[in-house]
Design goal:
131 residues; 5 helices
């Protein structure tokens, strides 16, 4: 069974937006609930990070395939690898990095998807190239 996404940029924007919302809301939820704050981050919340990264990878892979702009293709993967590295680092605590870096990379992916939506407005099937 092959699953196709009609326009993966919508998935990318939604996934990135939810990722940013999750990144902002999680600390606020832990601060507001002192009981959870004392026990560390539950595994479900950490796994949710990787769910968003997986969804964003599916979206950028499809978007990069359909984009005719080679710079956008490269930037999709660059920002995704940065986001993946930051989330992986957050899970295994290699370096202490500010959360702003994660927000910036997720926001950059959202902006790239929005740009790709505007850049790749097709009137017919031959507008976007599959390389």
């Amino acid at each position: 069974m092959k699953i196709t996404i009609k326009n993966p940029d919508y998935l990318g924007v939604i996934s990135g937006g939810l990722c940013i919302l999750h990144c902002i809301a999680t600390p606020l939820l832990f601060i507001s609930n002192a009981e959870l704050a004392g026990h560390g981050t539950p595994i479900e919340w950490q796994l949710l990070n990787f769910v968003f990264v997986a969804l964003s990878f599916l979206a950028i892979r499809s978007s990069a395939k359909n984009s005719s702009n080679s710079t956008v293709k490269v930037l999709f993967y660059v920002f995704w690898f940065i986001l993946f590295g930051l989330i992986l680092n957050e899970s295994i605590h290699i370096f202490h990095l500010p959360e702003l870096a994660t927000y910036a990379s997720a926001f950059s992916l959202c902006c790239l998807h929005v740009y790709n939506l505007k850049y790749c407005q097709c009137d017919d099937e031959n507008c976007c190239v599959n390389d």
